[in-house]
Design a protein that fits this description.
alpha+beta, Alpha-Beta Plaits, 2 domains, 4 helices, about 25% strand
Length: about 170
C-alpha cells in the first residue's frame, strides 16, 4: 500500500482540523470548566463565612475571658507577678522578704527567665501561696523550692523561710 499525494494531503488536513478544533473549541471548554470549579470553591468558602465568623467571635470572647481571669494588664510581667504575689501573700498571711529582677538565660529552646523569691510564714500558708502562683497565674513553673528554719536570737522567735525559683520559658 503506497501513499499517494492525495492521501498525504488528506491525512495532513485531518491532523490540521484536529489541532484547529482543539484550539478553537476544546481548549476554551477546558478553560471555562477550570474557571467554573474555581468559582465553586469560592462559593463554598463564602457560604462558610458566617459560621467561621461566629467561631472567631466565640474564640475572641474565650480569649478575652482568659485574659481577664489571668488579670494581665499593660504592665510588665514582673509587675503583674508582684501584684499577684502581694494579693496571695496577704490572703495567706505570708511575707514577701525578697523579690529581685529575673535571671535571664538564653538557650537552644529559647529565653528562660528565673525569678528568685523569698517568702516567710507558715508551711501550709507558703504552700497555698505557691499553689495559687503556679495554678492560677500564668507566670511559669516552680523549678526549685527550699525551706529553711531560722531563729531570731533577739526575740527568741523561730520562723520558716522559703526560697523559690520561678522559671518561665519564652
Amino acid at each position: 500500500m503506497k501513499l499517494t499525494n492525495k492521501n498525504k494531503y488528506l491525512l495532513a488536513g485531518v491532523v490540521a482540523m484536529l489541532l484547529l478544533s482543539y484550539r478553537l473549541a476544546i481548549h476554551k471548554t477546558l478553560m471555562v470548566r477550570e474557571e467554573f470549579y474555581n468559582s465553586l470553591g469560592k462559593k463554598e468558602s463564602i457560604t462558610n463565612l458566617p459560621r467561621q465568623l461566629s467561631m472567631l467571635g466565640q474564640k475572641e470572647k474565650t480569649l478575652d475571658a482568659q485574659l481577664v481571669a489571668f488579670d494581665v494588664g499593660n504592665s510588665s510581667l514582673q509587675n503583674n507577678l508582684l501584684k499577684f504575689l502581694n494579693q496571695e501573700a496577704s490572703k495567706n498571711q505570708v511575707k514577701i522578704i525578697d523579690f529581685n529582677s529575673p535571671h535571664v538565660v538564653e538557650g537552644e529552646k529559647g529565653t528562660t527567665e528565673t525569678h528568685i523569691l523569698h517568702l516567710e510564714g507558715g508551711y501550709t500558708d507558703i504552700l497555698k501561696t505557691l499553689n495559687a502562683l503556679e495554678n492560677k497565674g500564668s507566670y511559669g513553673a516552680i523549678s526549685h523550692l527550699a525551706f529553711e528554719k531560722k531563729k531570731n536570737y533577739r526575740s527568741k522567735r523561730t520562723y520558716l523561710q522559703a526560697q523559690i525559683f520561678l522559671e518561665q520559658v519564652k
